[in-house]
Amino acid sequence: MALPFISLAQDWHVGAFVGITNYSGDLVKQKVDLKYTRPALGLLVRRDINRYLSIRGAFTWGIVTGADSTSSDKALLARNLSFKSNVFEGSLIAELNFLDIEEKNFTPYVFLGVGGFGFDPFAKDLSGNKVRLRPLGTEGQGLPEYPGRQPYDLFSFSFPFGAGVKAILNDHWTLGFEIGLRPTLTDYLDDVSTNYVDQNTLLAYRGQKSVDMAYRGDEVSGKLIPGIYPRDGEVRGSAKYKDWYSFSGVTITYRLGGSSGWGRQKAMRCPVFR
């Protein structure tokens, strides 16, 4: 009986990701608005469990953004909200290859995993100053009049899934392309989720800046009927669906230790039973 080739079947790769980020939430009308495509970069480590299954750990940065001002919906134009945020994601993902990549030199694949990410939405005021939105409590978070609304966490979880294709360039390098979606557990990636709160209450507790950033319809009076701050309880966003983001792009990985473990294994394999 031959010894198992466990070490040979578990190859390691290190590499990078270069691509784009997109966002889906309360500040875009459609699921993905390509006007708000922004860059993404990442580093990754992949371990081949066998020729069909790999486990990947990655750290990825991207930018998510959206604005009512580019919408064709008059209600969103009148609301006039906007946001931008960096997203820093750490993830652990399983890749399932459809083909034996060592024999075909390429394979389509699907992937599924879990990630944790940090974010911090901000917008620019009329003077062009960057304003962090979470401390303003624009939907009454943390106010005694709204006990059910607590400040949202700036860390949440996502569940990456998607598909791609990768090809072996030589004994060391593998090139891939993938599209990956990230449903999340937060509805505040864009600082918008539920209803407006009373303007005077918000002013008393959080100040004029909070009022100014909670509703910005009065800034578009040259285009529409001058906006009036909505009444307490009027719809600001929708809590029915959580926010999503996506990372799509190219991966390039370098295999450590020379030729693949599966390639070596096939060359060295001997039968277990005669």
From TrEMBL:
Q: Which organism is it from?
A: Chitinophaga solisilvae
**InterPro entries in the record, alphabetically?**
DUF6089, OMP/PagP_B-barrel
One Pfam match: DUF6089
- Name the UniProt record assigns to this protein: Outer membrane beta-barrel protein
Q: Which domain of life is it from?
A: Bacteria
Its taxonomic path starts at:
Bacteria, Pseudomonadati, Bacteroidota, Chitinophagia, Chitinophagales
SUPFAM superfamilies membership:
OMPA-like
- Ranges for domain DUF6089 come to 9-120
